[in-house]
Amino acid sequence: MKKKILVIEQHFYPEVAATGQLLLDLCEDLVKAGYQVKVITGNPTEIYQYHNHKKINVPRKEIYKGIEIVRLKNTTLSKYSMTGRVINYITFHFSIFFHIIFSQKADLVLVLSNPPFIAFHGLILKLFKNCKVIYNVQDLFPDLAVELGKLKNKPFIIVLKVLSRYIIRKMDKVVTVGEFMEKKIKEEILNDTDNHHVMTIHNWADGKKIKVIEENDEDNYLRKEWGLENKFVVLYSGNIGYLHEFDTIISAAENIQNKGYNDIVFVFIGEGIKKEYIKKKAEERGLNNILFFPYQPREKLTYSLGIANVSLVTLEKGFEGMVVPSKIYGILASGRPVIAIVGGESEITEIIRKGKCGEVVQIGDYQRLAEAIINYYHNRKRCREEGLSGRRYFDENFERKISTRKYINLFEELLN
Question: Considering the entire predicted model, what is its pTM?
Answer without folding.
Answer: 0.92
